[in-house]
């Protein structure tokens, strides 16, 4: 399978599909389609070049960032990155490396098919940016998960490791 990239080159699509168990699928950059299949999988991306990252079934599918970049899910309309390229993702592991995540409440709601909760893992070199103002969110530290801060509006929940810088407007 081939596609034409932005510079007009023909490039091959890699398609990686996990089995029924808990798999780790490493995209490592390039125009891959990454699909975890059944089980709670880790889908690792090394750049924003991938076509699609699909956790598949299972309630603990993790998207892991394996190199340094900002994953901006709100950039959907520019066609570069956005929640339409993800499904079945319940956890985002920013994985240190200075990575950051920018998302809206709508992105949060659409990452997973089975839950409206997204958990963000990371360290103190990571940041999460979101504007939840006027959407009825409340913030609570160390509840219901110790070591994490929860943003909840009764429908959608964002759960972020306390080590991660949280630039969240409420
Ligand atoms: Ca899965």
Integer-rounded radius of gyration = 16 Å
Structurally, how many domains make up the residues? 1
**What is the total tally of β strands?**
18
How would you sum up the major sheet?
8 strands, mixed
Low-confidence stretches: none
Number of helices: 1
Q: What are the secondary-structure elements, in order, as H or E?
A: EEEEEEEEEEEEHEEEEEE
Task: Please tell me what the overall shape is.
Answer: globular
The amount of helix comes to under 10%
Describe the strand arrangement of the main beta sheet, using strand numbers: 4-6-8-11-13-17-16-15
Q: Report the mean per-residue pLDDT as an integer.
A: 85
Description:
It is built from 1 helix and 18 strands. The protein is mainly beta and 170 residues long. It has one domain. A hairpin with a 4-residue loop joins strand 16 and strand 17. 34% of the residues are buried. The site of calcium ion has 11 residues, from loops. Calcium ion binds next to loops.
């Amino acid at each position: 399978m081939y596609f034409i990239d932005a510079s007009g080159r023909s490039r091959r699509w890699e398609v990686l599909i996990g089995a029924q168990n808990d798999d780790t699928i490493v995209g490592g950059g390039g125009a891959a389609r990454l699909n975890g299949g059944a089980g709670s999988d880790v889908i690792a991306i090394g750049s924003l070049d991938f076509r699609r990252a699909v956790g598949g079934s299972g309630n603990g599918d993790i998207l892991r960032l394996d190199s340094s970049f900002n994953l901006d899910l709100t950039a959907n309309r520019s066609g570069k990155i956005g929640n339409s390229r993800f499904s079945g993702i319940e956890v985002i592991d920013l994985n240190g490396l200075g990575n950051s995540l920018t998302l809206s409440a709508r992105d949060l709601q659409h990452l997973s098919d089975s839950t409206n909760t997204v958990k963000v893992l990371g360290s103190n070199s990571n940041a999460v940016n979101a504007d939840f103002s006027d959407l009825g969110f409340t913030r609570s530290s160390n509840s219901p998960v110790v070591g994490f801060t929860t943003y909840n509006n009764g429908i959608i929940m964002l759960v972020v490791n306390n080590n991660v810088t949280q630039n969240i407007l409420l």
